[in-house]
Amino acid sequence: MGALTVLGIETSCDETAAAIVRLDRLGARPAILADLVRSQIDYHKPYGGVVPEIAARAHVEVLDRLVAAAMETAGLGFDGLSAVAATAGPGLIGGVLVGLMTAKAIAAVHDQPLIAVNHLEGHALSARLTEAIDFPYLLLLVSGGHCQLLRVDGPGAYRRYGTTIDDAAGEAFDKTAKLLGLGFPGGPAIERAAARGNTRAYDFPRPLLHRAGADFSFAGLKTAVAQTVRSLGRAPSPGEQADIAASFQAAVIDVLTARTKAAMRMFLDEGPGAVPALVVAGGVAANTALRGRLNTEASAQGFRFVVPPARYCTDNAAMIAWAGIERLGRGLTDSLDAPARPRWPLDEIRAGQGLPHQMGAKGPKA
Ligand code: KG4
Ligand code: ZN
Questions:
Q1: In b/e form, how buried is each residue of 231-269, taking b as 16+ CB within 10 angstroms?
Q2: Which of 103, 207, 247, 329 has the most CB atoms around it within 10 Å of its CB?
Q3: What are the structural domains of the chain?
Q4: Is 286 in the pocket of ligand 1 (CB under 6 A)?
């Protein structure tokens, strides 16, 4: 295999991103030649969440220039690329179309292979961009749109041990922050407020904690927080904000840790290879308290614990370029009629407990 240099494009939610990653030979450490992310947070802030039409238009406005800037940063012309990779779903369809059509145009004009990347696969493989880690590994993917435990055997080879039956963990952080008047995005705001609060001030529920399997649920927790805030009969004081945030975050961490523990046992039962590893990805992986707990639990079970640096945990295009390299290196490319997909589960098998999926407006995207 010669050197592979791939342009990655990410537009599935509220970050417009373009990156270029190069792999000189199999087994080498990849080089990130350019890695640009434009957040749209300021456009969505007034609405307390991501507005799909605003997102799509904002992607259109900046993507061309962002791609050009990434090429310039890498010191490359389009002919220096081996392939173009773009997120083809799951995500907000308007934004996905913007990125995928741009990638198709570049691929068509420069006669290069197109790789239509599943955004979840981008997150799933991102640990291999920054760490030397072999397949298989156990992945906890926790973001605003996704909350899943997966066994990762390689590109395209995933098995889901558990998923959320209602909200994603990041969504629960965002909604709780909104209830508390802490602003958007909620995760960092909750984490900051929680640092000043008492985790035992409120006894919030830990849904599904004692159920078999590794599925999650956060809707009941969100409702409990809403009731608590309502029962105050006024806006929470800074002290109440801190205590509710701390108690909420503790409940989320308990649930995520317990379900991950169950998944670690499922992973070991299948014969994991020499040193099993737990990888955490997605925006919620930025939470320091969560990382600490998962790290402790992973060590107790004999798992190596891997979290990509924060900027590769949240949405970015380097992970899309890298997923492109992983696929290209295995001869996996797509035709120019590859569809944009609002929903696109990573696995075909659902290893849950037969609980129904509820697809909310911003519910689990898979
Ligand atoms: O992966 P990501 O950037 O986008 C999605 O694909 O959803 O994740 C964003 C999510 C948001 O819900 C945000 O509130 C959450 O990650 N998040 C956090 C923290 N930082 C970001 N949640 C908890 N603690 C944090 N420090
Ligand atoms: Zn994401």
A1: eeeeebeeebbbbbbbbbbbbbbebbbbbbbbbbebbee
A2: 103
A3: 4-131+312-335 (3.30.420.40), 137-307 (3.30.420.40)
A4: yes
Task: Tell the residue nearest (CA) to atom 22 of ligand 1.
Answer: 187
Q: Facing residues of 322 across strands?
A: none
| 146 C-alpha to ligand 1 centroid (Å) | 10
- Cβ atoms within 10 Å, residue 354: 7
Which residue from 13, 45, 142, 143 has its CB within 8 A of the most atoms of ligand 1, so it is best to mutate? Answer: 143
For residues 10 and 356, what is the distance between their CA atoms, to the nearest angstrom? 30
* Collapsed DSSP state (helix, strand, coil) of residue 246: helix
Tell me the residue length of the chain: 366
Whether pTM exceeds 0.85: yes
- What SS3 state is found at 315? coil
Of 365, 352, 320, nearest to 125 (Cα)?
Answer: 320
- Asked whether 284 lines ligand 1 (CB < 6 A), one says yes
What tokens does 290 get? 């969560």
Among all ligands shown, which has an atom nearest to the Cα of 312?
1
- What is the phi-psi region of residue 150: left when phi exceeds 0, alpha when psi lies from -120 to 50, beta otherwise? beta
Q: Per residue of the chain (366 residues), what is the pLDDT tens digit? A: 789 999 999 999 989 999 999 999 988 999 999 999 999 888 888 887 788 988 899 999 999 999 999 999 999 999 999 999 999 999 999 999 999 999 999 999 999 999 999 999 999 999 999 999 999 999 999 998 889 999 999 999 999 999 999 999 999 999 999 999 998 889 999 999 999 999 999 999 998 887 889 999 999 999 999 999 999 999 999 999 999 999 999 999 999 999 999 999 999 999 756 789 999 999 999 999 999 999 999 999 999 999 999 899 889 999 999 999 999 999 999 999 999 999 998 875 333 333 333 333 333 344
By alpha-carbon position, which residue is closest to atom 8 of ligand 1?
283
Whole-angstrom distance, CA of residue 318 vs CA of residue 217: 30
157-163, strands of its sheet edge to edge = 157-163, 147-154, 137-142, 277-281, 304-306
* Ligand 1 site, residue 102, Cβ cutoff 6 A: no
